[in-house]
Amino acid sequence: MNHIKRYQILCKLRDNDVDPSIELVYRSEFELLIAVLLSAQTNDIQVNKVTENLFKIANTPKSMLRLGINGIKNYIKSLGLYNTKAKNIIKSCHVLIEHYNGVLPSNRVELESLPGVGRKTANIILNLIFGRPTIAVDRHVFRFCNRSRFALGKNVLSVEKKLLSVVPKEFKNNCHQWLVLHGKNVCQAKRPNCRVCVIKDLCEFKEKQIYII
After folding, report:
1. pTM for the structure as a whole
2. Which residue segments constitute the domains of the chain, with CATH numbers given?
3. Distance of CA 206 to the CA centre of its chain
């Protein structure tokens, strides 16, 4: 795909959603961290149901530690991998208090030192909280980028690097949200809804005609 077509795609996604936001509900930096940690292999709707109650009881590192690992498990046990997630939350809270005064660091290396925080989570926090032009690549973004040929790559890191090199600066702050929402709501895994897709005329998905008819 050439740069002109990519630019047109981004313009259409922007015009379709001028001020995009992720579907996770949060009111603070720490709440976003916890919500993203809980979202691994879990959809955002389920996470929001859990955090609605959890954050009423604990929404800071100190209050989360007071709740304790078993208390956290009671709130998040409906989510996948809840045992591991509870352990990572407790460990991350200890690190935040002991090394960062309870405040989220704005440095990628320091963010990724928190248990359970990988590159994708760090990218989301750096983008949404600190306004960095990072582009997180999850399964939705990865699928869309390869299917449409917007940014080809064999793994999430290669797609991320490609996106950072081909997405113009003016679009980078919102690019992740646009691509995630498009992947979730339109360019879905089993049956992409090409018929209502705003970029169907620009997309290079070879089988799109099947889904337009």
Report:
1. 0.88
2. 3-20+137-212 (1.10.1670.10), 29-128 (1.10.340.30)
3. 27
Confirm if 101 and 121 have CB atoms less than 8 A apart: no
From CA 90, how far away is CA 87, in angstroms rounded?
5
Residues serving a catalytic function are 120, 138
Give 155-198 pLDDT, tens digit per residue.
999 999 999 999 999 999 999 999 999 999 999 999 999 999 99
CB 205 within 8 A of CB 147: yes
Would you state the structure tokens that stand for residue 169, as one six-digit string? 């600066």
Grade residue 100 by pLDDT with cuts at 50, 70 and 90.
very high
Q: Which of 100, 70, 85, 78 is nearest to 35 (CA)?
A: 85
